[in-house]
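pls ignore typos typing on phone
protoporphyrin IX containing FE + seq
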Amino acid sequence: MSADADAGATQTPFERLGGEAGVRALVDRFYDLMDLEPVYAGIRQLHPATLDGSRDKLFWFLCGWLGGPSHYIERYGHPRLRARHLPYAIGIAERDQWMACMIQAMEECAVDPAMAQRLAESFFGTADWMRNKGG
Ligand code: HEM
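k done
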C-alpha cells in the first residue's frame, strides 16, 4: 500500500511533510514517544535496546512510501513488510499502540490535520495487515 496515490494533488505527501527533514522529524518523534510513554511499552519491548537502526529504517521506508526517494528499496530491496514483522508477535493491541504513537507524533509535529487523517487511514491498512497473532 502506498500513501502517494492522491490523484489531483500537486505535491506528494513527502513534499507536504517538508521532505526528508520533515519525515525524519516525524520518525524521531514517533520513536521518542515509544521510548518515553508507558502506554507504548508493549511495542517498545518488541524493539532492540537501541532504536537507532529502527529510526533509520522507518525513515528510509517512509520517504518512499510517501512518494519521495526510494532509500529503503535501494538498501534492502522489496520491503516485504509483513514477512519482516513475523518475528514479532503483533495483534490488535500492538497495532493500536503503533497507530496511537504515530497519530500522537503527527499531532506533535503539527502535520496538517487533513493530511494526518489521510495518512492515518493508510497507516492503519498497513498496520492491520501486519497482524500475525490473534487478540
Ligand atoms: C502494527 C504494529 C507494528 C509493530 C508492533 C512493529 C514493530 C516493529 C519492530 C519490532 C521492528 C524491528 C525494528 C528493528 O529491527 O530495529 C519493525 C521494523 C520495521 N517496521 Fe514495524 N511495526 C509495526 C507496524 C509498522 C508499520 C505500519 C510500518 C510502515 C508503515 C512499519 C515499518 C517498519 C519498517 C520499514 C521496519 C524495518 C524492517 C527491516 O528492514 O527490518 N511497521 N517494526
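The mean pLDDT is 94. DSSP finds eight helices and no strands in the chain. more later
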